[in-house]
Amino acid sequence: MKQIYRIDADRMISSSNHNVYINETLHPNRIMKEHDFVYIEEGYWEIYQNGECYKLYPNDIILLHAGEHHYGLTPCSPNTKTMYVHVNCDDHDHTGDGEESNRHVALDTVIHSQDSSKIKEIFQQIIYTQLSISTYKDVKLSTLFNLLLLELYEHPAFTKDKPNIAEQIVQFVQQNPHRFFKTKELSEEFYMNERTLMKQFKNQYGKSIYHYQLDMKMEAVRIFILNHPNVKLHEVALNFGFYDEFHLSKTFKKIFNISPNQYRLQVINNKK
C-alpha cells in the first residue's frame, strides 16, 4: 500500500523541530489530523502504523499518514535523535495501490535515505524556516515541503541503479577489513531478513557470508604479511578482525597448511 501525496498543494506546517530522547521513550499512541513525517538522526525506534511494525535506523524516514493509527510498543534506544514535520493533509492525499500523475507521487511508508544528504537538508531547512521570522515564511514552507515530497519520491528510483544486495555486502565487508560481521549485523545494516540475505548471497557467490569473509580475510592477511613481514602478528590480527594472534594463526594454518610465522620466515628468507 502506497501513500499518495499531491505535490502542488498549499501546505501549512503547524510544527517542526529536533527532538532528543535521553531516556527510552514510546512513540505516542494517536490518530492525527495532520501528516507526521519523522526523520531518525541517531538511535533506533520501532513505530507502528495500522498494526504494522516499522523498524527505524539512522537516516530512515517514516511517513505517518493523517487519519491513520500510529503508536509504539517498544521504546526507542536512549539518546535517540529525530526531526519531525507536522503538515496539513490535502483533500487529494490518500493511501492506495500506487497510482501516480503529474500532480501526485506515491511513496512508501518508510524510506531509507542513507545515500541522500538532500533529504536531511530539506528537513533542516523546514525546521529553520518554521522557527524563523519571515514575511513569506508560509510560502517558503509550502515550497520546501513539496520539494521534500519530490526528493522522497526520486530517492528510491535513484537507488535502483545500485549494486544488488550481495554485491553491496561484499563492498561493505571490503571497506571494513578490521571487522568480522555476523549475518544478523548485516541483515540490520541492509534491512533484509537473515534467511533471505544468506540465500541471495550464496546463490551469487556459491558460499556463505561467513566463508566468503574468511577466505577474503585470509588472502588479505597473506598479502599483508608478504608486504609487511616485520609487523607483529598481534597487530595483523587486529587489522583484520581476529580476536588475537592465536585465533589468526590457527585459522591461517587451517587455510594455507602453514602458520603465519612460518610463512613470514619464508618471505624474509626469499628476500635475502
Automatic annotation (TrEMBL):
<dbReference type="Pfam" id="PF02311">
    <property type="entry name" value="AraC_binding"/>
</dbReference>
<dbReference type="GO" id="GO:0043565">
    <property type="term" value="F:sequence-specific DNA binding"/>
</dbReference>
<keyword id="KW-0804">Transcription</keyword>
<dbReference type="InterPro" id="IPR018060">
    <property type="entry name" value="HTH_AraC"/>
</dbReference>
<feature type="domain" description="HTH araC/xylS-type">
    <location>
        <begin position="167"/>
        <end position="266"/>
    </location>
</feature>
<protein>
    <recommendedName>
        <fullName>HTH araC/xylS-type domain-containing protein</fullName>
    </recommendedName>
</protein>
<dbReference type="Pfam" id="PF12833">
    <property type="entry name" value="HTH_18"/>
</dbReference>
<dbReference type="GO" id="GO:0003700">
    <property type="term" value="F:DNA-binding transcription factor activity"/>
</dbReference>
<dbReference type="InterPro" id="IPR037923">
    <property type="entry name" value="HTH-like"/>
</dbReference>
<keyword id="KW-0238">DNA-binding</keyword>
<dbReference type="InterPro" id="IPR018062">
    <property type="entry name" value="HTH_AraC-typ_CS"/>
</dbReference>
<dbReference type="InterPro" id="IPR003313">
    <property type="entry name" value="AraC-bd"/>
</dbReference>
<dbReference type="InterPro" id="IPR009057">
    <property type="entry name" value="Homeodomain-like_sf"/>
</dbReference>
<keyword id="KW-0805">Transcription regulation</keyword>
